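User: Show me a protein chain along with its predicted structure.
Assistant: Here is one chain, sequence first, then structure tokens.
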Amino acid sequence: MTKRKALTLIVYSPALVGKDGRTLDVVHGLEKALPGLRLEWRLSEGGRPIALPQRDAWLVENIEDGGFPLVCNGDESYPVTVWGMGKSGLLSAGGQDQFEVHAKLPLGEPVITAAANVLEGMAEGARAFWGHASPYGYGSEVAQQFRRSPHGPERSPRGLPMLNLPEKLPAPEIPCFLGWLNYWSAAAAKAIGFPDPARDAELLSRARRTPLSGWVVQLTDAPLDYDNPAHLDALKRAYERFPEIGGRAAP
């Protein structure tokens, strides 16, 4: 997946409890969002797809360590993958254990068109606090925004604001950073003060409400490109609008 353009999606959710049905809700949400997608394969140790005739039962049976193993669409020329992991409260906002779901899809027109639905399906299936969808490579950019010392710079090399590390945030509902597409649960939207009709007209023109009263908010029409000055300006405006993101202001 790293050798091709890919869309990375991650949602951050309350920790799994036992054989938690949210695992299946996530996978079913992805399949519903992309017509024809069937995530009914696992990968061998050598990376080859192996069919899972009883996928749902296999997934529930293999929930462990707060997550679930990778499943995929079995198409090595057009790989779609999803997996879940538990994250310790020592490394998570508010000191609470979390359930993270990760997915990767080829970044082409069908996925770009369906990306908001895919993020919504994943996030609401997981009952996520927040999540995002961003082109592969966003991680190195966000990493340069994390404040690792009180004496560090005030801006990243791109001129973006510095953000507190996730474990420094006071509550799991507060998003750690912004992506191209952003999922904010009702609690997350409340924590950052979205929407304000007087201030968020531009964002609301690319936003929609979800069935669980969350929001999917798209920052730029095309997938976020840090080398595009217009995209960087949109990112800077959004960070300025929401100082709560990254723990830069009290919610």
